Amino acid sequence: MIHEDAPPMHVHVALVHHPVRNRHGEVIATAVTNLDIHDLARTGRTYDVHTTWMVTPLEQQRSLVERIVGHWRKGEGQTYNPIRAEAFARLGVAENIESVIENITEESGKRPLVVGTGAAVQENAITYEACRRQIASSTGSLLILFGTGWGLIDEVMDSCDLLLPGIEAVAGRNGYNHLSVRAAVAIILDRLLGNRVHDPP
Amino acid sequence: MIHEDAPPMHVHVALVHHPVRNRHGEVIATAVTNLDIHDLARTGRTYDVHTTWMVTPLEQQRSLVERIVGHWRKGEGQTYNPIRAEAFARLGVAENIESVIENITEESGKRPLVVGTGAAVQENAITYEACRRQIASSTGSLLILFGTGWGLIDEVMDSCDLLLPGIEAVAGRNGYNHLSVRAAVAIILDRLLGNRVHDPP
Question: Which CATH architecture does the domain made up of A10-169+180-193 adopt?
Fold first, then answer.
């Protein structure tokens, strides 16, 4: 049941650069890219995500993200493109997933529900519709983890409270699922938070 | 009514680099980026798009796209990453929108239904659900146009057979809609073609 007067959950997104797998299944730290920062900031702001976290254990990479964020929040970027600056107002940087969880817990007073995503996830996954209903009908925070490279390692997936199924193409027509993480974040946020006012229920 | 034995429409996507607007409303040609090619090829292949077209009047840019596509289809890319190569098998290059339409008409024997997209479109737009039903229940081809830069010019939008509404965030919670074209393509293809097997109707 949806309580009209209760606020929906705060949704957080984390783009995880470690621990993730490479194409050989090895655990690596991927490089943060400027384009991921921009695309995720814009998508997150559009879907009213509370904070989009860039997660990397590499201090140099965290400094790089902070410099880019600073440029857009307070520097020349703010004057050049205030719309982009607005997206960057909701960007966070963290050393690891646990530190994101601690930060949210500290701010909100309650541990977030942690949701794992991956191209191959099917077992034990909840449906997008069930997750959407939970966001609309609960309070507290939801943290959605996205892995770069070849995806989050099993230990991270196992530690999640919930898993979302992999994004499938049209049933029976295709067997290919190799989206960029930028596309996956956009699709999943739209499935969980997108406005359906134009569509019949 | 959906005819089980009739094939659904072939969906084509065109990423238009001209004629589009810049931030001042002037008509320009944007530069093709390597990342747009990769992201759209992967998203298009995942959603079983017939062909993803890169549209630019600049010959040098078309040559660049063809070189990149060749690298992945037949060159070192094919050996390095056959999954990526598969996505590139469905990439096309064209000088302008009319030439994409001619090409589809020639191949399929029938002019495609041309669909315009834009962040601000609301008037005269059909719903995503109606467009989804049309794809599932019709034959022939559907060509969805996406503008780079600040979007397709009015003359192009006016010439479209159908318009899709702008992607809105959660109703009543937000007023920001500045997605990257990569995110917009992913979200719109998921709304029109995404598998809903996990979700109740």
Answer: 3-Layer(aba) Sandwich (3.40)
Q: Please determine, looking at this structure, whether the domain spanning B10-193 carries the CATH number 3.40.50.1110.
A: no
d(CA A160, CA B179): 28
What's B152's DSSP letter? Answer: B
Model-level ipTM above the cut of 0.95: no
Nearest alpha-carbon partner for A118 in A29, A184, A170: A184
- Residue by residue, what is the 3-state secondary structure of B42-70? HHHHHCCCCEEEEECCCHHHHHHHHHHHH
Q: CB pairs below 8 Å between A and B: how many?
A: 153
Q: What is the DSSP letter of A152?
A: B
Q: How would you classify residue B24: left for phi > 0, otherwise alpha for psi between -120 and 50, otherwise beta?
A: alpha
Confirm if A167 and A119 have CB atoms less than 8 A apart. yes
CA distance B57 to B29: 8
Handedness of CA B15, B17, B18, B23 (dihedral sign): positive
CB B193 within 8 A of CB B135: yes
Model pTM score: 0.92
The pLDDT tens digits for B6-38 are 568 999 999 999 999 999 999 999 999 999 999
| Chosen from A35, A46, A133 to mutate, greatest number of chain B CBs within 10 A | A46
Q: What are the chain B neighbours of A80 within 8 Å (beta carbons)?
A: none
Residues 17-56 on A with a CB inside 8 Å of B are 23, 35, 38-39, 42-43, 45-48
